[in-house]
Amino acid sequence: MNRIISDTAEYGCYLFDHACKPLLADFMTKIDVNVIGKHYGVDKDNGVDNQELIAVNRNIRQHPVERIGETLRDAMTAMIKIV
């Protein structure tokens, strides 16, 4: 998913990962895998060529939305590193 969304949205994804996952940990231990949690497509090869990934990411960073996002992120001086 992060391959196709902006860096700003990706930051939100990481924020969720670090802030919300711990809050949900106890709840998720009580959820049956019949409801959620099964691996999808484990028998499929989801690999990607590294050089192709580098080229795609380069193209994404040059998209007009990303350029605007870069300007907006530069203006967000109060943001702190979450890792």
Give keywords.
mainly alpha; 0% strand; flat
Question: Can you walk me through this structure?
Answer:
The protein is mainly α and 83 residues long. Helices cover 57% and strands 0% of the residues. The two termini are 20 Å apart.
**Terminal Cα separation, in Å?**
20 Å
Listing every helix as H and every strand as E from the N terminus to the C terminus, the arrangement reads HHH
Rg from C-alpha positions? 17 Å
The whole-number mean of residue pLDDT values reads 79
Count of strand segments = 0
Topology:
Elements: H1 7-29, H2 50-61, H3 64-75
Put the structure in a nutshell.
The chain has three helices and no strands. With 83 residues, the protein is mainly α. The two termini are 20 Å apart.
